[in-house]
Amino acid sequence: MLITRIKASNFYGIKDPIEVDFTEGGEKEKIGYVKKKKERISLISGFYGSNASGKSTVLNVIDTVIRIMLIKQQDYVINPNGIKEETVITSPNYSTDVKDKPTVLEMDFIFGDDDNKYHYLVSIVNEGKEISEEILYKNSKKIFSRNDHKVSFGEHIVNKITEVVAGNIVAPKKSSFLSVLLDESSDIAVFSNLKTGIGISELKEINNKVCFITDKRSVQMGQNNINGLIAFAISYLNDTKTTQDEKLGAVNSVVKYFEPSFESLIIKKGTDNSSFSYEAKYINFYKNLGIMELSAGTRELVAYISDILKIIKNGGIVVYDETSKFYHPDMEIAILNLFKDKEINQHNAQIFFSSHNHETFDLLQNNQAHILEKKDNGINVSKVSDYDIRERDNVKRVYRLGSLGGIPDTIDFNRIINNLL
Q1: Which strand (E) or helix (H) includes residue 276?
Q2: Segments making up each domain of the chain, as ranges
């Protein structure tokens, strides 16, 4: 899977439409890109800006679009207090002047052995609670579109599935029609195996091609890498013996490099099969450490390195919010650099990351570095290549001087703190 473009409007901090393209023209090979015909697609894209500038929001566009594409939504959810609440698909921008406008999200991507080009658009209304419009194109031909609940198909699709079927399909208000098609548990017999008939059955494999490491998910699921740590343990315990050894061996070898005195993780099912123990064994320690006693950086590695390696090994995308949160700058660069190394990244895995570490500019071409700022019209995104800067210029220095925007006003911050003191 390769993402080539995203676009969003009225989405969290985004008010006016923003569009980010991850391609550039050119037929020559270039480090950090994969060549597809007459264009190059970036394999590593960085997002920079001060706190609350919109970095996480832009990365969340990718997360949200893929979630809407793949996951059927329930009409209601039960909150932690046991109260039934209407499902919110996503949050709009709460600015008064866009109150009555829909949230519109778009994504262009390449998928499948034949490098099929897809375009997907979804429009969400009623304060993020209902899908009003949805469109899917494949190789510039319309597969389907929906307007409210009514679904229509491209002419070449109608010829395949008969007009009777094509004219009597409706979509649920909370779920995308695409997620209904791709859901293996759906009763699609009445659709004559529709997803195969219209040629999109390959899209159900997207779920195995994505890895999201974002702050929004961690806040929802639990802080301090808990969600990632538990997910890794459950995945390990559910694997076959061969896969278990491979998965744990990979994580142990990486963590040993990170912490030389570390020996291995120990993950065991409880006697009742409904619980498990999760500890770390260290050289010359008379007792194992509980997993939450590990350093924040080690927990981050344990939680996510297995998923990252899986994507690099098989191809796909990693969305990683704030790679600078727990790692030493050199370690952060080493992880990101995996996606530029052609010998390691043989299946053209992509990473989209945000960072506060200026050193990571050295990994990127000017067209791969995105600067975010909050303006009156919401979030603005620009690329370093939009400015009069050559590839060999010291981008880190230019950025730190404020010439590209996207940096906090620390002088004013010091003044405020001084007044408070």
Answers
A1: strand 276-282
A2: 1-214+321-409, 219-315
- pTM to 2 decimal places: 0.90
Tens digits of residue pLDDT in 75-85:
777 766 777 77
Average pLDDT, the chain: 87
Taking only the tens place, the pLDDT of each residue in 36-85 is 988 999 999 999 999 888 999 999 999 999 999 998 887 777 766 777 77
Q: Phi and psi for 389 in degrees, rounded to 5?
A: -130, 130
Tokens of 43: 């394999």
Q: Spell out a b/e string for 373-392, using b for 16 or more CB atoms within 10 Å of the CB, else e.
A: bbeeebbbbbbbeeeebeee
Q: How far apart are CA 346 and CA 315, in angstroms?
A: 8
Residues 91 and 125 sit within 8 Å (Cβ to Cβ): no
- Cα end-to-end distance, the chain, whole Å: 52
The CATH architecture one would assign to domain 1-214+321-409 is 3-Layer(aba) Sandwich (3.40)
What digits encode the pLDDT tens for the residues 134-157?
999 999 999 999 998 888 888 888
Q: Bridge partners of 36?
A: 39
User: Rounded to 5 degrees, what are φ and ψ at 20?
Assistant: -125, 125
122: exposed, middle or buried (C-beta count within 10 Å: 0-12, 13-18, 19+)?
Answer: buried
Q: How far apart are CA 46 and CA 58, in angstroms?
A: 11
- How far, in whole angstroms, is CA 160 from its chain's centroid? 34
